[in-house]
């Protein structure tokens, strides 16, 4: 009889190790996914000053729009590394400001035809697609971790060893989702 008890204890311990390793794997996937978003957002932040400088030459009297883009970019890069919600909000504001900047280009045919502007616009458009893919990957990895943290019996291991849910990278403000309106 004691052999069966010993085997049951060993089986439970092995299952606990299996659950713990699954939680560690899920946490690492979520952290790697956040790193991917962070890299893409950094690339976008680096591209914004070049875009603004190109527009300045054609639309220097549109100072308010240009300043709004730079201010939004600076706020986005100033958000602490682990603040997912803060970064999502700041990136939403930056996205709106960039939308206004591109809408502004419609009023300046010379700017619209400028090769530097077109190249920067294409690069930013491509980068936005990569940000969206990275965000979907992060949210998927976060979902997997959060399910494990909340599901029985892995939630017992998660609470015992300090595993916590991660926030999703999403836009909370409906105004950030709206197409920017620009009037001339």
UniProtKB/TrEMBL annotation:
Predominant location category: membrane
Sorted UniProt keywords: Membrane, Transmembrane, Transmembrane helix
Membrane topology field: Single-pass membrane protein
Protein's cellular compartments: Membrane
GO cellular component assignments: membrane
Segments passing through the bilayer: 6-24
SUPFAM superfamilies: LemA-like
InterPro entries: LemA-like_dom_sf, MamQ_LemA
Keyword Repressor recorded: no
Family of the protein in this entry: Belongs to the LemA family.
Record's protein name: LemA family protein
Species this chain originates from: Ectorhizobium quercum
């Amino acid at each position: 009889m004691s052999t069966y008890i010993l085997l049951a204890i060993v089986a439970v311990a092995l299952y606990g190790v299996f659950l713990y390793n699954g939680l560690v794997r899920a946490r690492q996937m979520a952290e790697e996914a956040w790193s991917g978003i962070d890299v893409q957002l950094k690339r976008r932040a680096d591209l914004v000053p070049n875009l603004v400088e190109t527009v300045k030459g054609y639309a220097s009297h549109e100072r308010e729009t240009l300043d709004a883009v730079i201010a939004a970019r600076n706020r986005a890069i100033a958000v602490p590394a682990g603040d997912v919600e803060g970064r999502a909000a700041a990136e939403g504001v930056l996205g709106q400001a960039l939308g206004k900047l591109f809408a502004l280009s419609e009023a300046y045919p010379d700017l619209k035809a400028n090769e530097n502007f077109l190249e920067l616009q294409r690069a930013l458009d491509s980068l936005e697609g990569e940000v969206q893919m990275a965000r979907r990957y992060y949210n998927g990895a976060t979902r997997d971790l959060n399910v494990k943290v909340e599901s029985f019996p892995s939630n017992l291991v998660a609470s015992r060893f300090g595993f916590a849910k991660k926030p999703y990278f999403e836009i909370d403000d409906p105004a950030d989702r709206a197409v920017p309106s620009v009037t001339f």
